[in-house]
Every structure is written in C-alpha cells, then in structure tokens.
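Posting for a labmate who doesn't have an account.
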Amino acid sequence: MAIERGAKTRGRMARAMAGADAIEIKATIPDRQIAQALRRFKLTLRNDEERYIYFFDTPKLAMLDAGIIMRARRVVGEAHDSTVKFRPVDPPKVGDEWRKFPDFKVEADASEKGMTKSASFSMPAEKGLIKRVAAGKRPIRDLLTSAQKKFIVKTAKRKIDFDALVVLGPLRAHRWRFEDPGCPWPITAELWVRADRDRMLEMSIKAPAAQAACAAGGFMAFLAEIGAERDREQQTKTRWALSYYAAKFAGPARKARPAGVASGAKAATRRAGAAKRGAKTPARRI
C-alpha cells in the first residue's frame, strides 16, 4: 500500500491538530450495511445505552449555519445533560477559563471529508427538565447554565434569542462502546433513528492529539479490512437530523420574519427602551 511520506508530509497532522486536545475520527456506515455491522459486533438493543436527543435551533437552522449546535440528551436510567458546541473554532481564540469545567473540550472532528476543530461545553441537566422543555412547560433557555450562556456570548460574540428557537426532535439513539481485536482504540457505535424511521449509524474512535495520525489512518484501514463500504452520501448526523425536523416548520402558510431576528417594531421598541434606560445596545443575536 503506497502512502505519500517525506518532507512534504512531515508535521502535517500536528499542524492540523494544533490547539486540540484530542481527535475523534468518525465514519458513517451505508444504510444497506447497518444490519450487517450490528451483527458483526454483536450489538443489540439488549446491550445498548438508549438515549433521546433534542436539538434547539430556529426553523431556518440559523444556529447550525452559524456553527452553533445546542442539544440536550436524555439517557434512560442515567444522567441527562445539555451541550453547546461550536464548529469550527480557532483554539487559541477559545478562552482558557472554560477548561476548569470537566465536560468542556476542544477536539478535532475528523471524517473522510476532512477535519474540523470544535469546542463543546456540557453540563448536567436535572431529570425531568428536558421533557418539560420539550412539552413547552419550561422555556428553552432554562436548559443552559449561566456559564454555558456566558460561553456562547464570549465565544460567538452574540446572544441567542431563545424565544426564536424551537425543539427539533427527539431522535432515538442507541449507543454502544466496545473493543475489537483488530482496532487498538475502543470503538463507539451510535445508531440514530428519526421519527420517519430513517436511520444513520456512525462508528468512531477517540485518541489523544499525539496519536492523531496513527489513529486516523488506522481506523480507516480497520473499516476497510472488515468490509465497511464508504458512505457516498456521508453527512454529519446533526445536519441529517435537523434538516428533517426543521422541514416540519416549513410551509406556505408561514410568513415568518428571518428566524431569530426581532421584527422591526419589536426591535425599535427594544432599542428605545434601552436608550431610555441608558443601556448599551445588546449584542447581535441569532
């Protein structure tokens, strides 16, 4: 197997990984091979971790288009959490103040389409809160802690208009973490199922930044060895999921203003009130 190496490739991966603590290498499995892959690794609904994943965005997916992902995960029988993720990011521009939180991370997301650095910040969510938010009994803003909201403002230089967000989902997710003698890194498999029963299976590994080159090449070689075909329609799980649920809000009867942007009258009233109080103009919003 011929692989280019030499002066041209020296430090290539290290430069691509600069500022990231770890790498996650992901690959989606074509739908026609999902059943085969589950059998190959003995993955069943009896040995999975069942999750329900909710996303929060505007009907036009303005947040996703701006590189901001907000989600909540309800794990059956386990702890629940909420996450804010930015993708892509320039690691040196992400403040060090967030690293004191155990579930904050900067890592590289790699797939057969390329590599993107991301920063994500997760915090626990009290049990029952996600269901109440999804049912409209609690506002979406209640899912995020004050630290997460501050993280959004400082990292994205904008505030989120939570009143413009809608609940997208939930997706049912089945997650497995296992080992295989052919792969030196533990493997995570996650099967997402939409309301229309369309499915997506993603397999991934995580490795420290120093092992990025070896892990990326090794995992793809492992998938090739077990006969996993390349998914020609590969897309991120998030885009695949959100596009479907957001489409439910589309329709000719809706003549909504651009998602996440206050109407002229409301914006004018807000600015006038702020000026009267001597307040500063709010940061730009999504």
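Reply:
Got it, the structure tokens are right above this. The chain has one domain: 12-254.
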